[in-house]
Amino acid sequence: MTKIFAIMLFTLVFTSGQTFAEELQTNVKYISKSAVYVDAGRINGIEVGDRGTVIRGIEIIAHMEVIFVADNSASCRIVESKTPLKVGDQVTMIVEKPVISLDTTSSNTPKSVITPRVKTDTELIARTRKELTNQFSGRLGLQYYSQDNLDEFDNDFIQPSYFLRFRIENIYGSYHSLSLRMKGRKNIRDSNLHDISSSSWNNRTYELSIMFDNPNSNFSYNAGRIIPSQVSGLGLMDGISFEYKLHEKYQIGIFGGTEPDYETSNYSSEEVKSGIFLTFDNRNLQGSRIRTTGALLGVYKAGEIDREFVYIRNSYSYKSKTSFYQSGEININRDWRRDKSNNTLEISNFQTSLRWSPVRAFSLNLGYNNLRNVRNADNRTVADSLFDDALRQGFRAGCIFRLPDNIRFSINGNVRSRSSDNSSTYATSSNLSYTDRRISLIRFNGRGSYFSNKYSEGLQFSFSANRNITSDLGAGIEVGVRDYTLISSSTTLRNNWLKLDADYRISRSLYLFTFFEASRGDGVKTNRWMVDAGYRFR
Description:
single chain, mainly beta, 22-stranded antiparallel barrel, six-stranded antiparallel barrel, 4 helices, about 5% helix
């Protein structure tokens, strides 16, 4: 026994620092403007600097590198990409692991390490192609929310609900995927002022579509209840969208369909939507990316023009240091719309944002947007004085400091104004957080904010702490206070709250989350409670 122990100790001492590349299969779970997040992290062995290969269908579409790791996720930067990534794309991570070697030479002498052969791109594609066939992902959950009002009105509220998000990738190897997203809920109210009333179940389907996306084909489509991905703000549509790749950097598309009923989410043929778009996407190996989308869109109701407009979107990013985004809508006024506005072209929505991070420890954010109420077929007879189509614009700015010892500080501010109103709305906030990873993952967060508008002004402060008690169980506590003044009556009110929450991962697929919140103060005496249980499809 002593001899075996000595051999083991000898092996560990003389093999330290040597690694080999081990593969870990995961997928893209979220995409931000500056990073791609994968559904695996520190507990899976991933570390900063590990490499990843992204595969869609049978084609390698990107290479990336890990820049930040949490327990259950990792943030990656794109090193090289042939096409934009999507949530659900398969990722093969190359994770560094220790190698056992019996080399007994001096530690100052380079050691000869035998590493497993890294699979070729062809082998990775063939294996991933098979694994992605009929792959299920998504989540099924049940929620129960209860609000108990302890004041004299006793206006209690209960809401049971369910939600389902489900996706089947590459059905029988056909490059077709099926997506379903729906939610149902029932509101039950109890009040001393009225008879007990409850609504029937309100079931809504937000997405039910089938998509064809073959990485080796220039043609793709998405049919069913969809949201055209190339154009934001158009909303849901029961119809079909076609896309065709004209060139490696250029893509053209067309879509058309009807808008579902907003009240019930049922099918409706009353309002028709259609459009055509062109996208330019250029990404290079130096880490920069330019993307531009231009679209001509039309919405028609009962055979009349509801709205016609041009949509323009531009974005630029360079590694994780700089990102810029801009979008705008220009109304094309014809028929009754021209008579109402006296203009053929009119800007109705414009927004832009800039993020600059010269070093990892600091980033600056700037933004501007303006909005103008848009007339449509339903409100075209409303008087101008009631419709209020004045320009509303806002500016915002903020910065984030990443300090040593996992301390993060941020401050933000924004101001909004109307051209028809001299009063402006102001809001500022600051946030300080600290994460201790040495013993157990503990997070502390303090937040303060101030707001002022035409009707009220006030302050709000909160503090929260969260801890991973075990690898599967987390708990948190939050306390806060809100002081605000009603300007019309000079009345000052104060509210306080205490919130407790817990998150338990029962198994790889099953989870449970619950919280309890008690609010007390001027005119407020309420307890809220919610439990959320669900199953994650893998």
